[in-house]
Amino acid sequence: MTTTPERPTRQRTTLERRRTGGDVAVGVLLVIAGVVLLGNVVFATVASVLLIGWTALISGLVLVVGSLLRIRSGGSWAVALGGVVLAVLGLFILRNTAIGALTLTLLAGCVFLSTGLVRIVGGVVVPEARVVLVVSGAISVVLGLWILLDLTTATLTLLGTLLAIQTLLEGITLVAVGRVRPAPAGAAPPAGTTGAPG
């Protein structure tokens, strides 16, 4: 009589949202930073443009180097070309911050306007969600038109305002509920899950 060896059981990682003292401290700092940025949206706009520029530049370089290192094992020239374009875009934004801010603001206005129009049309087609889609679509259209019709003011304020609001919301979220992390060892599994040998 032969016995089959037992396969080791795989432990399931349970995720939960917990708040620690570090989360509260970082959250408070983010809230303060968000309030400061809201008080100086022009500075926040410049900071957001520089952040986007550096992110594009570094991401592009990483894509190019990674593709070239793997080119013999099936690396893609298309990925390398995309990395070059991304790196050039990052350099362009960093060298011409004002034009970069104008371009990103124009893009944001077009996105708001087109998204709003799509939602309004969707509200006409889908009667059960008509009110929500039409209202949210109308707000997006108004935002898009405001940006596109007053591009100079929007360029100085829009990106900074969005960055400040995002920073503020991140800080409030950290202070209120913490962040998602693995549950501590030995914690009870969520209701309805049973550990069965794999």
From TrEMBL:
Entry's InterPro entries? Acid_resist_chaperone_HdeD, DUF308_memb
Q: Which residues cross the membrane?
A: 21-43, 49-69, 76-93, 99-118, 130-149, 155-177
Classify the source by domain of life: Bacteria
One cellular component (GO) term of this entry: plasma membrane
The reply on keyword Transport is no
Q: Does the keyword Manganese apply?
A: no
| A Pfam family assignment | DUF308
UniProt keyword terms in alphabetical order: Membrane, Transmembrane, Transmembrane helix
- Name of protein: Uncharacterized membrane protein HdeD, DUF308 family
Q: Which organism is it from?
A: Geodermatophilus aquaeductus
